[in-house]
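Quick question about two entries, pasted in order.
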Amino acid sequence: MQSLLPSIYPLLKQTFGLSFGQIGIITLVNQIIASVLQPVIGVYTDRRPLPYSLAAGMAFTLAGMVLLAFGPTYGAVIAASACIGLGSAVFHPESSRVARLASGGRHGFAQAFFQVGGNVGSAVGPLCAAFFVLPHGRSSIAWFSLMAIVGMLFLWNVGNWYRQTSAFTGTGGTVVTHRTGLSRTQTRIALALLLGLLFSKYVYLASFGSYYTFYLIHRFNLTVRSAQVHLFFFLGAVAAGTIFGGPIGDRFGRRRVILGSILGVLPFSLALPYANLFWTRLLTIVIGLILASAFSAIIVFAQELVPGRVGAIAGLYFGFAFGIAGVGAAVLGELADRTNITVVYHVCSFLPAIGVLGFWLPKVERSG
């Protein structure tokens, strides 16, 4: 449902006569609200878990979908974007904790498996836009609100299960935490390095989420539907890369996954702006597969650096990822307006070079 918002940007641009900068503002509002609130909610729920916040988050998304379908003005679209961002902010901190509780100790796998649901949904969104929303108009988005209602029922049951866990009953005994042996300063530096790596990853991903369809239409004269299908290929690769990244991090170490994922994309990102349509399609699939494997490893790495603060860390890193993606989308939209859309991909091709920060991450995680 969240992915329908960027997927219908071409439709919104035509309907309301928007500039690329205004498109970027829609993304900015959505991501900044999610960014600011997620750490706050995460810190609060570390102290006082909220099992039914999962269903509440879906309710905010439901409101956003209805407003997106019927909002008559650009301002209404902004409000819909804000509601969808609020839904994400409420949902993610506790959902990350639930995934960890259900992991059986395989924290990287559980985080990746949880996130791949969202990534698969993000991949399907452009197809829904291309083959359902575009032919039937913006009001057809309201049908996807039914998914939110079904989701709320499922998440209410998840909340019931959550209430029976040791997080509430106190029957789990003493929670064993793995101390890293790092000083407070070293821990803060490591957390900052991880945020820098997220900056690289999510600004680059923002260029695809908000502007890849426009790039394909401008450079290769594709139709909107064809461009949406190409976006699906990229987002599908992101989903696949996410599910591989968690288990590989559990087995071989999260530091290696993070370093190889972000810095490993650089040769492909540098080649992308010069590729023809065939190689563009292939390169974006490779980029999606490699780049996506980092996020679950980053989250679990950070949670291991600060034991016992699962919600706060999840909120901080999900929030930062959403926020920097929103700011990046707005800046890239302004860049596209002042130059052209192809310049965006020339500039962004250098972002994976920030992956060199991974060399300074401490070797503290345990494999296996």
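Here is the second entry:
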Amino acid sequence: MPTWLSTWHLFVDELWVHFGLSDPVGNAANLIDNLHMKPGDKIVTYNVEFMWYTTQLNWGDSVLCHHFYQGLPNHLQDLIANQEQGKPNSFQAMYQLAITFDNHYWEQNHERDCLCNMEKEAADSHHRKQGKMTQYSASSQSSTLPRSQSSTTPPQIVLSRSSLKPPRISPSITKSPSPSTPHVDLSDKLGRDGKLNSNERKRHINNNLCLYCRSKDHKVDRCPRKQPVRARLTTLEKQETLFSENLSEN
């Protein structure tokens, strides 16, 4: 039975021989050479890894200071290098200065993010108020529109004066002959105005004939055939007079 099975430290040594690193110092040095602070990380993560590797190395202070500076991001390197006294020469001074600048960097980022959020909230609030004002203005305008502009109101029919004015009828109306009445040539008895010429009018008066129907029973002012036409003319003239008076009043 092997002795390392009965003793713990011998068991650990045996495991290290078979599964441990053949060159732990060289491996730690290689890891620390390729160690860089990742973008978006705070310096505490970088410090933990760096300090872990340095425990396996016997490097001097200036070597550790150099490797620590090389692994920092550009914005921290610029802040450290722009110091009036230049870059620190000791690892401890470099370590503390990097922590201070990193804390300031994240504080500024936090303040900048808060300011951006406040500006965004103010802009969103302004846009919401503008939208509400626009909706209120539109609703106010729609509620104050006259009925004539409403889409639900039927269109009004506007009648012109000419369409309301009754047709003008000429006082000289000649009665068209009935289909049963034979055609009589009156061109030698009527003038251009449609009335009896002077000779025919004189003959009617001398023979006591009606000037309208040539009857001997009555005069023209009592002609039964002329009364309906005269009555219609009188009614139409009265309507036209009333219509003209209404238009002048409006």
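Reply: Residues 171-181 have pLDDT under 50 and may be disordered. The two ends are 134 Å apart (CA to CA). Hope that helps.
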